[in-house]
Amino acid sequence: MKLQVNGEERTISEGTTLAQLLEELGFGGKYVAVERNKEIVPFRTYNETDLCGGDCLEIVTLVGGG
């Protein structure tokens, strides 16, 4: 199935969770904020959030500086 991740189309397998996608994209273990279809996804639900065809995700990483 197809969805959008940060403006780019991506194909994933049926039944993929948000946590699995983040791991696949190299974000596993990193602090990120995820917006799914214009709604923030709570971190504690990443493992149980099943993605659907047509979803639009925005993934933002935290960057420190000074």
Give an overview of the whole structure.
It is built from one helix and five strands. A five-stranded mixed sheet has the order 2-1-5-3-4, with no helix packed on it. 11% of the residues lie in helices and 33% in strands. The protein is globular and about 40 Å long. Strand 3 (32-36) and strand 4 (39-41) form a beta hairpin. The mean pLDDT is 94. It has 66 residues and is mainly beta. It has a single domain, classed as Ubiquitin-like (UB roll), CATH 3.10.20. The chain starts with a strand and ends in a 5-residue tail after the last strand.
Identify the notable features of this structure and list them briefly.
66 residues; globular
Helix content: 10-25%
Measured by DSSP, the beta-strand proportion falls in 25-35%
**What is the mean pLDDT?**
94
The tally of helices reads 1
CATH-defined superfamily:
Beta-grasp domain
User: What is the CATH class designation?
Assistant: Alpha Beta
What is the SS-derived class?
A: mainly beta
CATH architectural designation: Roll
Q: How does the overall form come out from the CA principal axes? A: globular
Provide a short characterization of the protein structure.
With 66 residues, this protein is mainly β. It is 11% helix and 33% strand.
Task: Walk me through the topology.
Layout: E1 2-5, E2 8-11, H1 18-24, E3 32-36, E4 39-41, E5 56-61
Parallel strand pairs: 1-5
Antiparallel strand pairs: 1-2, 3-4, 3-5
